[in-house]
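Lecture 7 notes: from sequence to structure.

We start with a single chain of 334 residues. Read the sequence below before looking at the structure.
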Amino acid sequence: MKKIGRNDPCPCGSGKKYKRCCMNSVGKQHSELVDSIEQMLTMNPDLSVDELNVIAAHQSDKINNAPQKDFCGLTPAQMNNWLYAPFSDLQGVKINIPSDLSTSPVMRYLELMLETALANGGQIKATAKGNLPAALVKEASTFLPEFAVAPFERAISISEFSGINEDKFNALHYCRILTEIAGIFKLKNKKFHVSAWAKRQYQQTGLESFFPLMLETAIYKYNWGYMDGWEDDIPLQQFWLFMLWRLQHHESLVPLVDETIQAFPDLLNALDGEEFFSEKDKFASLIESRFIKRFLQFFGFVMVDLRRFVDGKRVAPQVTCLRLMHETFEFRIG
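Now the structure, written as tokens:
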């Protein structure tokens, strides 16, 4: 992601300049460093360039490497890396390719699409609406018992992981969109064509080789608000690794929301509260829908407990971090 300038509009959508909004949490220390050096130079105009550089380096190192309570103990340098570094340059975490991807809905659906295409000359016939054909959708629905998906409290015919056609099957639709964004498949002349490079890669190195690409595509290129009804444009992608780190720590939505607000308090400024729904409630719903259910769950990283009431009492949403998450993300903080 492109680094945001101090006078650029803040990505949280508040309408403020970055330096007056979320920068107050993430880059405030850097702004203070610049101000202190300017002040020092005003008071000591005879300082040489070399002396000023030494002072600046010392102050910068001190600020950047001091753990911050608001960041749950992360340093500003670490947080800056997580917010702005390319996927391949992230620090404090090792991202692995799991040896077994059979419990990942996204990867299983990708495998099904590739196998179906290769069995039919490298293509899959699309429906009139441009969706995957009914036969493939039906086969994908049979995978549901193999995934760690919490059961519904009542019998229903359609869920995130099944449906009679693609547009009633969110997890499969999500996978298909990712494959097109990543360039694995291309829709042309009412057919999904597997790209030549993807065909070679699959035949030579297998499904596992697509995992980093699908993950990076989901994080940085896919529109996280695509499938929900929220109009609020909060760039949760920017904070995905921080949220994942905290979720892996406590496996609960409530502290995750609190810690994200603590680290980036001005995010709430971009939300409009409603009569019975506060800005914080809306923010929690966005995290649950966009980050947990339709990213982590679709990849097979978590299982979400759908119950909101137990024995007549309201319970906080619980999230179980699964084997696939722990194998994929090895955090090395502190």
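Residues 279-299 form the longest helix (21 residues). Keep this in mind for problem set 3.
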